[in-house]
Specification:
This protein is 18% helix and 30% strand. The chain is an alpha/beta fold.
Length: 120
């Protein structure tokens, strides 16, 4: 009987009063831009990398995860799909494609930028 009460309490907390699932947490990380050297090469998910696509690489997020990435400095946002593994430097958490980086203003920075992201 206790597990039923716990299950109902968990459902109430997850769904909330209005019946909608609560928004996911925002994560603040450092993002970099893919090198142009990767153009046309096969990514970890089996597809070829294109500079014009809105894609990202993450070491921890599963392939196909859709992210809303927002620049902390410029407050511009872009929607990307995780399609690759990387970046492999411990300081960075996301690699953005050329198009996505240009959209949020990363190309104006010194190679990396603080961003916030959340799953959609």
């Amino acid at each position: 009987m206790r597990w039923v009460a716990r299950l109902l309490a968990f459902d109430f907390l997850a769904v909330g009063l209005c019946g909608q699932v609560r928004a996911e947490k925002w994560y603040k990380v450092r993002a970099t831009e893919y090198s142009a050297w990767f153009q046309g090469r096969v990514m970890a998910d089996g597809y070829r990398y294109r500079n014009a696509a809105f894609t990202a690489a993450s070491r921890t997020l599963p392939f196909g995860t859709i992210l809303l990435v927002s620049s902390v400095k410029t407050h511009r946002s872009v929607v990307v799909v995780v399609t690759d593994r990387g970046p492999w430097h411990y300081k960075f958490s996301l690699d953005l494609s050329r198009a996505a980086a240009k959209e949020i203003g990363l190309t104006d920075a010194k190679g990396w930028i603080w961003v916030r992201y959340r799953r959609l």
